[in-house]
Design brief:
Length: about 375
């Protein structure tokens, strides 16, 4: 190759190492090393002289190691074989990294395996040019920022995944709260990776974990997000309003369903409706009481009595036995006005004060005509009616 008078590199900044394409130098040639660059002379696979920024005229004064090998007398312009590598020592930022696939990790708070992924970026610079070229570059003509990223991808991902998993498990951090710890985790992970970079003459300037999250389309993630949203809605609305809203949502969904008209849909609709009415009454009980009178509340069942057929004990207000289905003899009657139980033979209702002038069947408590010999309801003989 022809002898060049000027040796320099003015390429893009993302190139970390560039090998000058010539292989013949001569004393007196001009070597231009830009700011934040260094030039390394190579001969027979051996790294020799390292030259810093500036304009240099090749002589034994600035490349003594090379001169001793080629053994050329000073002032001789005879070409001699040598290689020159230009090393970019500027800080290279915004190198991306990220897990190619989510890693399953048990969330210690949710107690469920989640597909967790992480991503971020880092910056680095060449700390030792000689070690960088010897250990990492070899004989390739160029070595870029992307090449460094590809080379260290395996180291970064392995240590990042192990560190993140250990932090989540040992410190019991949930994926829902881990974002608050990204800064300290980034610093710790940078310290763990520093030795791997220094082995090749590099220095990590910064290292960031931008996010630790889960894929939005994962079924388990969708289920958890829905549960968390329901929990937040429950907390804001309160129990009664939330249940009423959920009931109306179910009713609306049932109404849109084609099968809502069958008997099962009708039964579900009726049950849901009763639940909705109960919840609505619980929430708005004070307002409802102001616009309408209090409903007549039947008295609770009285003492237990034995069934004459099977001996099973049941409330005396029941008309039929809950075991054999036979009629129950009750010692109480029912007021025809307010439906509250009154003792058989009472003259006035103890709840509403109505005069009980009519005759009541001693067996079922139903009103009977004064001249009737049998109860029209239970056919009981009324010889001892009052």
């Amino acid at each position: 190759m022809a002898i060049l008078d000027v040796v320099k590199y003015d390429g893009p900044n993302d190139i970390l190492v560039w090998k000058w394409p010539g292989d013949q130098l001569s004393w007196g040639s001009q070597l231009i090393v830009n700011q934040s660059q260094e030039a390394l002379f190579y001969r027979n696979g051996q790294a020799l002289d390292l030259v810093g920024p500036g304009r240099h005229s090749l002589s034994t004064a600035n490349i003594p190691l090379l001169e001793s090998i080629v053994n050329i007398p000073f002032g001789n312009n005879t070409p001699f074989p040598a290689e020159v590598y230009f090393i970019n020592k500027a800080v290279l930022l915004d190198v991306k990294w990220g897990t190619p696939r989510p890693m399953p990790i048990l969330d210690p708070q949710l107690n469920i395996f989640l597909p967790i992924r992480a991503n971020g970026q880092f910056g680095f610079r060449v700390k030792d040019s000689r070690k960088m070229v010897v250990q990492l570059v070899g004989t390739v003509p160029t070595f870029s920022k992307e090449d460094v990223s590809d080379y260290f991808k395996g180291v970064i991902l392995t240590k990042a995944k192990d560190y993140i998993a250990s932090q989540l498990i040992e410190r019991k951090l949930s994926i829902l709260t881990v974002s608050a710890h990204l800064a300290e985790m980034s610093q710790s992970l940078q310290a763990k990776l520093q030795a791997d970079f220094e082995l090749f003459g590099l220095d990590i300037v910064n290292f960031f974990i931008n996010a630790i999250d889960v894929p939005d389309d994962d079924p388990e993630v969708k289920h958890i997000k829905q549960a968390m949203a329901s929990k937040a809605e429950f907390s804001i609305m309160g129990e009664d309003v939330y249940r009423m809203k959920r009931t109306f949502d179910v009713l609306e969904a049932s109404a849109k369903n084609e099968g809502a008209g069958n008997l099962m849909g009708a039964g579900m609709g009726l049950g849901m409706g009763m639940g909705a009415g109960s919840a609505f009454a619980s929430v708005t009980g004070g307002m409802m009481a102001a616009v309408q009178p209090a409903p007549k509340v039947p008295a609770p069942p009285s003492a237990m009595v034995a069934c004459p057929a099977c001996g099973n004990k049941a409330f005396s207000a029941y008309k039929f036995c809950t075991v054999c289905g036979g009629p129950m003899i009750t010692a109480n009657a029912v007021c025809p006005s307010c439906a509250v139980e009154v003792p058989v033979g009472a003259k006035f209702c103890g709840h509403c004060g109505r005069k009980l002038a009519v005759s009541l069947c001693p067996k079922c408590g139903v009103e009977v005509p004064p001249v009737a010999s049998f109860c029209p309801h239970c056919k009981n003989k009324l010889d001892n009616r009052s």
